[in-house]
């Protein structure tokens, strides 16, 4: 490959994470990626529900989910999963959409694979405002607009937000949201200072 080809401006490839295989005390061989020191795994089988912890030292521990705290443990896991779905989202309405989307996914899940799917970027940032704007523009129900938007990329959603027909509605909705979020009555402050009558 020539230097010109190498310097063509393409992004350098990220090196692959090194995986170290460790022989565990129970005989299994487990791969630890990068600097990871501990792995956790939920086991569900005829023995019940257990959680296994594998340590980079080769030690392994498995603990049962006991009846005394079974529901607390389940609730904690569910609250954590739904909360994780909101990570990185600033807008409360986008958070609502994210947990609704996760719940719809989990309602259709038939096994642990549905629960264990890896969270990807939700692409929901700003979607709630776009959703409301499209509902207002079209008169369509929330489910119809959600279905339409779920198939769109973030770039397509951004283009829709900035389209001539949708942008004025988006701006008005965002302005309404901002005014609802305002905690300080600036008019009262201005009157107090004698700047307004």
Brief summary of the model shown:
The protein is built from 9 helices and 5 strands, in the order H-E-E-E-E-E-H-H-H-H-H-H-H-H.
- Overall, the morphology is elongated
Please work out how many helical segments DSSP would assign.
Answer: 9
DSSP summary, beta strand count: 5
> Mind describing the biggest β-sheet?
3 strands, antiparallel
Beta-strand percent range:
15-25%
Rg is 25 Å
Low-confidence stretches: 1-6, 120-124
The side-by-side strand order for the widest beta sheet comes to 3-4-5
Proportion of helical residues: 40-55%
* Domain module tally: 2
Q: Which class do the helix and strand fractions yield?
A: alpha+beta
Distance between the termini: 75 Å
Kindly state the mean pLDDT as a whole number? 82
Order of helix and strand elements from N to C terminus = HEEEEEHHHHHHHH
Please explain how this structure is put together:
By secondary structure, the chain is an alpha+beta fold. The chain has two domains: about 20-70, no CATH class; about 90-180, no CATH class. It has nine helices and five strands; from the N terminus they run αβββββαααααααα. α5 packs across α8 (about 165-180).
List the topology elements:
Layout: H1 3-6, E1 19-23, E2 29-33, E3 38-45, E4 48-55, E5 60-64, H2 70-84, H3 92-108, H4 112-116, H5 127-138, H6 142-150, H7 154-161, H8 167-181, H9 186-192
Antiparallel strand pairs: 1-2, 3-4, 4-5
Helix pairs in contact: 5-6, 5-8
Keywords:
2 domains, alpha+beta, 5 strands, 197 residues, two-stranded antiparallel sheet, 3-stranded antiparallel sheet
